[in-house]
Every structure is written in C-alpha cells, then in structure tokens.
C-alpha cells in the first residue's frame, strides 16, 4: 500500500498511524524512511483495557482519557503521574 501511495504522487509523510498490523510499520518505513510510526491511540487503549478488571474499568478509562486528551504535554505528564499513583492492577503490565 505505501508503494501505491508513492506511485500516485505522495512524496512524503510525517506520521504513519497504524493499528498494530505486523509488517505495516516496516512497509511504511521502506517507502518513507523519514516517517515516524505511531500506534493508534484507540487501539492502544483498547488493548490496555483487556487487562483491567470490571471493578476498575470506569475509573481506568476516565484516567487514561485524561492522559491522551490532555491539552499540553505538561498536563499529559501530570495526568500520567496521577495515573501511576493509583493502585490499578493494569500498572503491572505497563511496568514490565
């Protein structure tokens, strides 16, 4: 697919937002070596929530949203630090 885009005139991309398909980031970087690859936030959150107990589900989703919807990097860092202070079971997976 990246080769087809290149052939159709797309000369450069800054960010490739992918959903975790194996090989897709490599395919993008082969055609666009300067592109930065980022995992889609929706997929990151969904994958993370698979490990959250139902008891914590609402609180974790609320706290994750405060991180990824933060208006500034500083606000995001503060929300992340607050998230890390909670005793969510999911933090064991992030720290590994």
Task: Give a brief rundown of this model.
Required for the transposition of the insertion element. This protein has 96 residues and is mainly α. The protein is built from 6 helices and 2 strands, in the order H-E-H-E-H-H-H-H.
> What is the CA–CA distance across the termini?
34 Å
Helix content: 55-70%
Number of helices: 6
User: Main beta sheet, described?
Assistant: 2 strands, parallel
Overall shape: elongated
Question: Can you tell me the residue ranges where pLDDT is under 50 for at least 5 consecutive residues?
Answer: none
Topology pattern, helix = H, strand = E: HEHEHHHH
Q: Count the beta strands.
A: 2
Helices and strands: which structural class? mainly alpha
Global mean pLDDT: 85
The Rg value, from CA coordinates, equals: 17 Å
Strand content: 5-15%
Function: Required for the transposition of the insertion element.
Protein name: Mutator family transposase
Keywords: DNA recombination, DNA-binding, Plasmid, Transposable element, Transposition
Organism: Escherichia coli
Give a verbal description of the structure.
- This protein has helices spanning 2-7, 24-31, 41-49, 57-68, 73-85, 91-95; strands at residues 15-18, 36-39.
- It has 96 residues and is mainly alpha-helical.
- The protein folds into 2 domains: 2-39, no CATH class; 41-95.
- It has a two-stranded parallel sheet with strand order 1-2.
- Strand 1 (15-18), helix 2 and strand 2 form a beta-alpha-beta unit.
């Amino acid at each position: 697919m990246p080769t087809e885009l290149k052939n159709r005139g797309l000369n450069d991309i800054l960010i490739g937002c992918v959903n975790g398909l194996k090989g897709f980031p490599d395919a993008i970087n082969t055609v666009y070596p300067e592109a930065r690859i980022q995992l889609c936030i929706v997929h990151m959150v969904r994958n993370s929530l698979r490990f959250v107990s139902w008891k914590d589900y609402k609180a974790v989703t609320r706290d994750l949203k405060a991180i990824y919807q933060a208006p500034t990097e500083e606000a995001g860092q503060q929300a992340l630090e607050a998230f890390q202070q909670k005793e969510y079971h999911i933090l064991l997976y992030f720290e590994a």
